[in-house]
Write a structure and sequence with these properties.
- About 40% of the residues lie in helices and about 20% in strands.
- Bound molecules: 3-methyl-2-oxobutanoic acid and zinc ion.
- The site of 3-methyl-2-oxobutanoic acid has 10 residues, from β5 and β6.
- Its cofactor is Mn(2+).
């Protein structure tokens, strides 16, 4: 029986850890990737694309360890149409109970131009590489990158070749987010109609969001016969991102009357994952984002508030609880105990062990002493900044005292621990943040350019924590940093240092040979 036999079942393929991580600046650490993979597995994702094993030693190790720890999900590794890529992907995913190799090549005229392969040469390459992958693994996915800009006749030919060579899933990527819903559906219909053997495999849809149509295009492809949706949490991904998992899953749930397809996703885990991915990737979710945005269930106008109080369905097509969101966001205060904190953190996507709980509880108490009310977002900010994440960082902020006010220049007295050794400096600047950044720069020599500095209040009130986001670029590498504190300047120093730590991780990542820019 092929996966395709479940005509009403749509497989959810999450690529947050591969395509999502390709967003400039969204690099995640090894442990963060493992945690997210475990959460995706628990949530019921069918296939987790865990990374691109040949891209770096770090990617390889993450895919291998995710495979080792996997429970129900198929674990997939990406590979170009080259034997060493495929071998490396297999080396990493073979540890999974259910491994998959995903290999791809750009088939549109533009991509054929780059690889300098004729149509016939490319067909030969596909035949050989898919067969090679299939010899290693029973579960092989093949993608013609830029499928939506590939000539239909040629697309049929390459898809047929991949099926004959042993591919079990054929993914049709809209790599540049160019298609529209009707066209997306017609493409799948055309392939199902014209390609021999198409009824024996699963068609997948992989849509980028450059024109804001990724979710609509994915759903249209499903209505036309695709049975796997490729997506990411929060729609994370290169440029404008990918189809968002929460959007397709909730659309299929809420409009099951017109789209009668099932997924195996436990939707009550959506919010936890969304927050987790936002926190570790450094990409906050926009307030008005569908399903998981802060305002998705907020009702501002009097008419709406009145209607929702009388009957939630007047202005809500789903309930906050459906995605794991509490009706009230106010959670804890200084009298809350450890058990309450543990259960709240679990709800927010953090399963804390005893030692972690001890550490977080101390930080929570310190925050509750400074802030009257501690909200979910405060706890998430606290988690992000927790020593649990920072203790392995090479650079850490140990002390900061700033003199500021109407009399210039402002100055910052800063102690950083760098590779375990404390260094102190006093620097001046045009304002407290400028002075603080100048002090960091004196202690950590680098030529990274500050591309973005942003401050958000985590919640309301003058005692609110500030979350600061910093984006640095150095030699084409981008790293973002975030930190929160009730003191905006302390948050700024920590965010800057967080970005520098991430930049160092990026420097260590080595690129594979050849051109990966087009992926
Ligand atoms: O967008 C794309 O084409 C991809 C492929 C590697 C599937 O991410
Ligand atoms: Zn993609």
């Amino acid at each position: 029986m092929t996966e395709n036999s479940h005509q009403d079942r749509v497989l959810i393929f999450d690529t947050t850890l591969r395509d999502g991580e390709q967003s400039p600046g969204a690099t995640m650490t090894h442990d963060e990737k493992l945690e997210i993979a475990a959460m995706l597995d628990e949530m019921g994702v069918d296939i987790i694309e865990a990374g691109f094993p040949i891209a770096s030693e770090g990617d390889f190790e993450a895919v291998r360890d995710i495979a080792k720890n996997s429970r129900n999900a198929v674990i997939c590794g990406l590979a170009r149409a080259q034997f060493p890529d495929i071998d490396r992907a297999w080396e990493a995913v073979q540890h999974a109970a259910r491994p998959r190799i995903h290999t791809f090549i750009g088939t549109s005229p533009l991509h054929r131009d780059i690889t300098k392969l004729t149509q016939d040469e490319m067909v030969e390459r596909i035949e050989a590489t898919v067969a090679h992958a299939r010899n290693l693994c029973d579960n092989v996915q093949w993608s013609p990158m830029d499928a939506t800009r590939t000539e239909h006749d040629y697309l049929c030919r390459v898809v047929e070749t991949a099926i004959k060579a042993g591919a079990t899933t054929i993914n049709i990527p809209d790599t540049v987010g160019y298609t529209a819903p009707r066209e997306s559906a017609k493409l799948i219909e055309m392939l199902l109609e014209r390609v021999p053997g198409a009824d024996q495999i699963v068609f997948a849809t992989h849509c980028h969001n450059d024109l804001g149509m990724a979710t609509a295009n994915a759903l249209a492809a499903v209505e036309a016969g695709a049975r796997q949706i490729e997506c990411t949490i929060n729609g994370l991904g290169e440029r404008a991102g990918n189809t968002a998992l929460e959007e397709v899953v909730m659309a299929l749930k809420v409009r099951n009357d017109i789209m009668p397809f099932q997924t195996g996703i436990d939707t009550t885990r959506i919010m936890g994952l969304s927050r987790k991915v936002a926190t570790v990737s450094g990409f906050p979710v926009q307030f008005n984002k569908a399903i998981v945005g802060k305002n998705a269930f907020a009702h501002e106008s009097g008419i709406h508030q009145d209607g929702v109080l009388k009957n939630a369905e007047t202005f809500e097509i789903m309930r906050p609880a459906d995605i794991g969101l509490n009706a009230t966001n106010l959670v804890m205060g200084k009298h809350s105990g450890r058990a309450a904190l543990r259960s709240k953190m679990k709800e927010l996507g953090y399963d804390l062990g005893d030692n972690q709980l001890k550490d977080v509880f101390v930080r929570f108490k310190a925050l509750a002493d400074r802030k009257k009310e501690v909200y979910d977002d405060d706890l998430l900010a606290l988690m992000r900044d927790s020593d649990l994440d920072a203790e392995h960082d090479r650079i850490q902020v140990k002390f900061l005292r700033v003199i500021c006010g109407t009399e210039a220049p402002q100055s910052a007295d800063l102690i950083l621990s760098i590779d375990g050794v404390e260094h102190r400096v006093t620097a001046q600047g045009d304002g407290p943040v400028d002075a603080t950044f100048a002090a960091v720069k004196e202690l950590v020599e680098h030529h990274a350019h500050l591309e973005l500095y942003q401050v958000h209040a985590v919640t309301g009130g003058t005692d609110a924590q500030a979350t600061v986001s910093v984006r640095l670029s150095e030699d084409g590498k981008i790293a973002t940093g975030q930190a929160s504190d009730t003191d905006t300047v302390v948050a700024s120093a920590k965010a800057y240092v967080n970005a520098l730590n991430r930049l160092m991780v990026r420097r260590e990542k080595t690129k594979p040979e050849g051109n990966l820019a087009a992926i």
